[in-house]
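In this section we walk through a basic example: taking a raw amino acid sequence and producing a predicted 3D structure, encoded as discrete structure tokens. The instruction is simple. Fold the sequence below.
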Amino acid sequence: MNVRRRLIPTAALAGAVTLGVVTLSACAGTSDAADKGSDGKLDVVASFYPMQYLAEQIGGGHVAVDTLTKPGVEPHDLELKPRQIGELGKADVVLYLKGIQPAVDDAIAQAGVKNTVDAATLTTLEKHGTEVGHEGHDHAEGEHAEEEAGHDHGSESGADPHIWLDPVKYAEVAKGVGTALEKADPANAADYRKNTDALVEKLGGLNTDFANGLKNTETKTFITTHSAFGYLAERYGLDQESISGIDPESEPSPARIKELQDVAKKDKVTTVFFETLASDKTARTLAGDTGLKTDVLDPLEGITDTSKGDDYIEVMRSNLAALQKALGAK
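The resulting token sequence is shown next.
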């Protein structure tokens, strides 16, 4: 197996944030501060949980956050009612991630919202999954690659949208969101800035814990239901092998299943990870056929009663513990 690991350079963070702020200004328009709701709070609509978390953490008591994707709903499959689309136009700020929820992308275009913040513009997106091989492995050619060609849930350029699973990239997005709220509500800019700094500090600590916790492991390879963890794998020098590529609903070919069985044996894989909001049938079947264990690696697309934690930070720490166990951290 040819392995080409490429760590994301943290030094590029400052430039990416600058780029994001510039892009944000264009997205948010040139209007003055938004008119607040009757309760005096800034009305923020978030597309799904990772955006909701940023809005709540940074906005604090100055914002009222509504989330389009309710707990337990798979974000990729979200469908919006006409009433929801109409209400988008009334929001002071809409925070979303273009490329992961087509229904939301279309609704925002229809609603003509002035203050929209696209998280994808606040950091640098990259390609993962079958488009460039499975996390650095030469699996892009052949039957499985052809099968995946029609199942891209990334951006128009085919980029992977799962940026929130990398604490460093998520911190870049947080800074851009903070800037957006400051612009929409200048009177409370100091609080937004303070909350942003606090969140970025927490994410920095999370990044340090992941880096230290995954530095020395018996294997670097893990198998997941779909390629949600490409950015995380790059950040910490791991190799993600997905069953179904970027799209969690696509079915793997028999050739891909055989390929994963070979990878598991060669790379001493111990665990097949499934997630909370998608079917675990294929993961359990693969694990059973190869004598591997199963465990949850949460892509954090939503918090439910089955989530191993009450918020982003807690669930990410549960993910770290699961990876350490599966990879044989020393």
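Looking at the output, two observations stand out. The radius of gyration is 20 Å. The first helix runs from residue 13 to 28. In the next section we compare this with other chains.
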